[in-house]
Q: What sequence folds into this?
């Protein structure tokens, strides 16, 4: 069966794209979708506790977003340049997205923060991305923190007042170019309540690259090429997930990144293996989930791989109908927007 990109289109009014995070993370709205019947309910995110049962397991992606957007200039000509860090290679070499790309050929030297950070373009790789080596004194994380900006998606035009609001409260390991946004709704108070209710927590790590958000250009979605992202599953997380399944509990992934991690890390029987690897998994309707039972997720862009993933879980018609309802009810969309629980 051919799946067309246009099958996943919906018309979204621009004013529903959330530009700022809410003051209280857990007060965002929650659309609950029954994946079997397509029935919906409208709640507040902190009501998620009503839908989770003792023995269920939440899988959370504890990656941390780095201030990956750097503004600088080209040495000699002083022309402006913008560099977005995507993936760290050996030492201080990074795969990056550079604008304007045409001006940044191999050998081009770049300067940031008046010389606090310097760089050289080494080579052009897939999709026109550049490999860049950075030079600095001191600690890389501190230099980056002082010069870099949070890499907010292009549809967010407001400036972020507090860097931590594009970070989950459980973010731990540096490496992402985008936040695992379904996790932005959780607060320490909500976690305390969940643990008191007997909900288990399994932390995995997937460093989110921009491949997740790269638009699908081909009309036949099977021609779309997914970029790889690095994930890691600890022995402890694998044990929690596997024992949850064995004991009849549900595995509930918080976000599409956690979903892609557990589905990539499992064997055909749905047993999650500890370890780390790169994944380019592309989940679309027809996919049989091996580990995940339910999903907490935000509302995604039309025709995106993420809408295709939620459609694989709940059915395209159910998802598009629920999205239509969310638009009618004026839900807030995308990274700083409201959430959906697919049960």
A:
């Amino acid at each position: 069966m051919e799946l067309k990109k246009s099958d996943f289109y919906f018309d979204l009014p621009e004013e529903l794209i959330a530009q700022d995070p809410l003051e209280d993370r857990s007060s965002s709205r929650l659309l609950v979708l029954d994946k079997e019947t397509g029935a919906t309910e409208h709640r507040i995110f902190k009501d998620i506790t009503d839908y989770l049962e003792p023995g269920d397991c939440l899988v959370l992606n504890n990656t941390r977003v780095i201030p990956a957007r750097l503004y600088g200039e080209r040495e000699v000509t002083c022309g402006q340049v913008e560099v977005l860090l995507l993936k760290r290679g050996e030492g201080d070499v990074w795969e990056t997205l550079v604008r304007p790309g045409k001006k940044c050929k191999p050998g081009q030297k770049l300067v940031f923060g008046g010389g606090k950070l310097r760089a050289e373009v080494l080579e052009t790789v897939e999709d026109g991305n550049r490999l860049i080596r950075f030079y600095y004194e001191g600690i890389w994380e501190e230099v980056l923190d002082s010069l870099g900006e949070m890499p907010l998606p292009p549809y967010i035009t407001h400036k972020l007042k507090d860097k931590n609001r594009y970070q989950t409260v459980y973010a731990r390991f540096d490496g992402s170019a985008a936040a695992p946004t379904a996790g932005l709704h959780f607060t320490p108070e909500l976690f305390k309540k969940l643990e008191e209710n007997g909900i288990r927590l399994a932390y995995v790590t997937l460093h989110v690259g921009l491949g997740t958000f790269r638009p699908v250009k081909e009309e036949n979605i099977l021609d779309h090429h997914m970029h790889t992202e690095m994930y890691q599953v600890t022995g402890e997380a694998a044990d929690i997930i596997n024992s949850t399944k064995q004991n009849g509990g549900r595995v509930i992934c918080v976000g599409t990144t956690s979903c892609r991690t557990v589905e990539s890390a499992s064997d055909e029987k749905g047993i999650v293996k500890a370890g780390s690897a790169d994944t380019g998994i592309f989940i679309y309707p027809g996919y049989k989930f091996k580990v995940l039972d339910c999903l907490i997720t935000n509302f995604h862009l039309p025709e995106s791989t993420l809408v295709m993933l939620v459609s694989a879980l709940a059915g395209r018609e159910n998802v598009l109908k629920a999205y239509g309802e969310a638009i009618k009810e004026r839900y807030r969309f995308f990274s700083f927007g409201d959430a959906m629980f697919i049960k």
